[in-house]
Design goal:
The complex is a heterodimer of chains A (about 425) and B (about 70).
Chain A: H1 14-37, H2 48-78, H3 85-108, H4 112-139, H5 145-173, H6 179-211, H7 218-236, H8 244-270, H9 279-303, H10 305-308, H11 312-347, H12 365-387, H13 392-426
Chain B: E1 2-6, H1 14-25, E2 31-36, H2 41-49, E3 52-58, E4 64-70
Parallel strand pairs in B: 1-2
Antiparallel strand pairs in B: 2-4, 3-4
The chains are: A mainly alpha (about 425), B alpha+beta (about 70).
Chain lengths: ~425, ~70
Amino acid sequence: MHPSLSFDQAPPISVPYRFFLVAPWFGVMAGILLAWSGGDALVSRWTPEALALTHLIAVGFMLQAMCGAVFQFIPVAVGGNVWRPTLVANIVQPLLLLAALLLVAGLLFTRPGLLSAAAPLFLLATGGFVAVVALALWQTPATGMTLWAMRMAIGGLAVTVVLGALLAEALALGLSVPIVELADIHLAWGLAGWALMLLAGVSYYVVPMFQLTRPYPLWFTRWFGPLLLLLLLAWSSRLLLEDPRWSLAIALSLLALLSAYAGMTLWLQYTRRRKVHDATSVGFRIANLSVLAFAISGAGFLLYPELAADPRFAVWLGVLAFAGVFVSAITGMMYKIVPFLNWLHLQRLGAPLSAVPNMNKMIPVEAMTGQLRLHVLAVSLLLAAVWLPGLTRLAGAALAVSFAWMGWNLAGAVRRYQSFKDQIRAAGLHH
Amino acid sequence: MTTVIDGREMQPPEPMERTLEALDALAEGDDLLLLLYCQPHPLFNILRQNGYAWSDELRADGTREIRIHKL
């Protein structure tokens, strides 16, 4: 590229990659656990297997992938500088990994000691992460709603982890706290306050940029995040206010707001001028259709108490949210971030533009779309297995193979980065 | 003279590649107008470190007009 230009100081490529390379293998563990436990795992959201599965996806796959993406996204999208990213990532990533394994083992085998050990590790790891990320997000001179959504999302992560740690200690020590209500609030902050808020902030930036849509309307981006935050605070007040009509009104408003985000994103994709059907667009479409399915099922669950009486209905919602929405969206994002980072870091070696391979060469297109198709099959089987327990083992196997394929694709991209880097260096094209 | 790059319907990294190429050819006193739907912070960092100045204006339709010239 341009020998005369020097490049920015984005974090070393190893910072996001150490998170991305680990994340899919938690999904593989979730699939194996499901295949191994069989039909009883999904009869209720409270079985040890269901709690372990949820957390393998939430703090294993999602949290690892999202933390890695945030490290990278802050300098690229909002021009912020994370304090000593390599050092922070080297501490936070293994701590999160250990905490997730302890938590999952504690939930699965009902071991209070493991739950008690996991809680402070989570507080330490996410506390450090939240502190450096919040500092970067408040110091950047950038403006815009992506930045505000990320600030709110980081707050959402802090609330989720504090409530999660409290729940883990309450279970371990037998504290008398309202477990079910606290778990519902923890879940809402984790899924909506952290994960969806971050996804929305990232969407404002990457959907127009990579999927070539029009931008999200300004009125939408100005209102979506603050309203979501307000509704989550109102939802949390159910601890104090025991009015079922209030809870119902808040929950229905939350579902309407989620549908607005999904509907807007699908509308932007549908009306774009240049059609792009890459893995990222497909991943986002599956995610947003799952948001709509979640909102419709959730409304049914709230309005028809006879549906809510069946504990499998909550599991159905969980499958839609975790596997349908977030695994799909995160997979689609990683399939864009990783090739882009490979390209960006190869550029930084200073070779001529023509010497840096095209982004499409980083992960084979068929491997990404094939893996996403298998993921859709796995989600469909999981949804079916909620009602037909005979399918549970098959759904678990499909989930494990799908995540392993994702892990293989990402590892392949890292290998290709290394070999392209060696080629550029060997050709003496860098400076 | 102003060179215009409309990156709104290009997939990244094409707008950045075209901008870097155009900067190489940019004569003293000329400027480069880049149209995008986002703020390209990696590009801003490169500009900052290489002696370019830029202004960034948001149009009502969400387009960002990024005007670049050599300091």
